[in-house]
Design goal:
It is built from 11 helices and 11 strands. It is an alpha/beta fold.
Length: about 240
C-alpha cells in the first residue's frame, strides 16, 4: 500500500469521484450523473441555488431534481416547449420560466419541437443543425417563442450573486447564451453545459477566460463540466459577489 503507484491511485480525483458515484448511483436522476458531480464538488451542500435549462418535465434526466427534493435547494427552471409545461409545474417547486433562454431578451424565434420523436431534442431552429440529431429536428413542428437572456433571467427571479450550479442544455445555442452573459455581474460555483463539435472549443475558451476550469472530461461525455477556479483551488471563501 505504500508503493508510489498505489498512493498515487488513492490520491486520484478520478478514482475518488467514481467511488462516490458508484456508492450513490441509485440516487441520481440526471442523465450522466451531473447531480452527483454537483454533490461531490460541493460536499452535498444543503439549501443551495441552481439554474437549469432546458428542464423538460423536471424529473426525467433532471440535473437538479435531487438537489431540490433531497437537499432543499431553490432555483430557476426554464423550458420553452409547451409539451412539458404541465408536468414541469406538477413535478417541481422552483421558479419556472417558459421563455427560451437566448443571447438577448424580447426576440421572437422559431423553435422546432420534436414531440413525436423525442421532445428533449427540441431547439431553436437557427441552432438546430450542430449535431447528429439535426435531421430529426428538421422534421419537427415550428412554433414561435419569445426569448430571455441569461442576465435577465437571473435578475427576474432574484438569483443570488453567487449561484451554486447552472445546467445549460439547449440543443445548440449554449455558446450563444454564454457569449452574451455578463460574467462580471454574477459567479457560478459549478457549470455543466452541453456542447457539440461546433461549440466545444468556443465554450471552453470562453469559460476558462472567465475563471472556470474544466474537470472530468473523460466522464462528462457530451457535456463540459466546469468549476470556478476558487473552488477547485480550495479557496471557496474567495467566491464573492461581484461588485455592483
Amino acid at each position: 500500500m505504500n508503493r508510489a503507484e498505489i498512493t498515487d491511485l488513492l490520491r486520484s480525483q478520478d478514482l475518488a469521484f467514481l467511488a462516490y458515484c458508484v456508492a450513490r448511483r441509485r440516487r441520481s436522476r440526471a442523465q450522466i450523473l451531473q447531480d452527483l458531480w454537483v454533490c461531490y464538488e460541493l460536499g452535498e451542500k444543503r439549501e443551495g441555488f441552481f439554474v437549469e435549462f432546458g428542464s423538460t418535465n423536471g424529473l426525467t434526466n433532471s440535473n437538479t431534481w435531487f438537489l431540490e427534493k433531497e437537499l432543499g435547494w431553490k432555483g430557476i427552471l426554464a423550458e420553452p416547449n409547451p409539451v412539458w409545461h404541465a408536468d414541469l409545474a406538477a413535478n417541481r417547486g422552483a421558479h419556472i420560466e417558459h421563455r427560451c433562454v437566448s443571447s438577448r431578451s424580447g426576440a421572437i424565434v422559431t423553435f422546432l419541437t420534436t414531440d413525436g420523436v423525442d421532445p428533449e431534442l427540441s431547439a431553436i431552429a437557427a441552432f438546430a443543425d450542430g449535431d447528429h440529431f439535426a435531421d430529426v429536428r428538421s422534421k419537427g413542428n415550428r412554433i414561435d417563442v419569445e426569448t430571455i437572456s441569461l442576465n435577465d433571467l437571473l435578475d427576474r427571479y432574484d438569483a443570488p450573486a453567487v449561484v451554486d450550479y447552472i445546467s445549460i442544455d439547449t440543443e445548440g445555442n449554449e455558446l450563444d447564451i454564454l457569449s452574451s452573459f455578463d460574467f462580471g455581474k454574477r459567479r457560478f460555483r459549478l457549470i455543466s453545459v452541453e456542447q457539440n463539435p461546433n461549440t466545444e472549443r468556443g465554450i471552453q475558451d470562453l469559460l476558462q477566460k472567465n475563471g472556470y476550469v474544466r474537470v472530468f472530461p473523460q466522464f462528462s461525455q457530451w457535456d463540459g463540466w466546469y468549476v470556478s477556479t476558487e473552488l477547485r483551488s480550495g479557496r471557496d471563501h474567495d467566491i464573492v459577489a461581484p461588485a455592483a
